[in-house]
Amino acid sequence: MSASTHELDAPPWRRVDSTIMTTARAIRRAYESRLSPLGLNLTQAGLLAFLKNSGALTQTRLASGLGLGRAAAGSVIDALERRGLVQRKPDSRDRRVWLVAITGAGTDLVGAVERIDKALRSDLRRGISRSERQQLAELLLRLQANLSDILVDGERPRDDWSRPTRA
How far is it, in rounded angstroms, from Cα 81 to Cα 43? Predict the structure, then answer.
């Protein structure tokens, strides 16, 4: 598809939204591949880095910060705890609450994760200028805002969705 061809004339798998989803999946696969020698997946690496930067947090706060559900965050925490990379400890301010903290071994592993991330980001940015990346980031943020509106609207029934649209 040439740059001058309007996306509406493209088949569905060549439209912007499909390209974004395909690119996101490919980026995730690249991270997973590079992190696999460390025995980590992208979610686990992200959780460790988040803890290193923020300090001990509740499972709820971790889940929210990483965009995960509480149960999914719990599974990730359990796996990392079995490896000695994080530990649960009681909150000194509230005995009912447990905090998740990174261990020394987890902190050491984040150093390797950061090196992998830096190298991969360099590879991903090859041939793309800083101003192009800034423009892309701004467009993606606008798309995210539109998605937030859609998701909020999607919770309300719309009786006109089933009606045919007129061009």
Answer: 14
Question: Could you tell me the pTM of the whole model?
Answer: 0.78
Give the pLDDT confidence score for residue 162 in this predicted structure: 53
Tell me which residue range forms the domain holding 113.
7-125
Q: Token pair of 21, please?
A: 């989803």
pLDDT attached to residue 17: 84
Tokens 């606008």, residue located: 142
Q: What is the CATH number of the domain that holds 65?
A: 1.10.10.10
**Would the CA dihedral through 63, 26, 32, 55 be positive or negative?**
negative
User: Within 13 A of 97's CA, how many CA atoms are on the CB side?
Assistant: 13
Whether 101 is covered by a domain: the verdict is yes
Please state the φ and ψ torsions of residue 127, each to the nearest 5 degrees: 80, 5
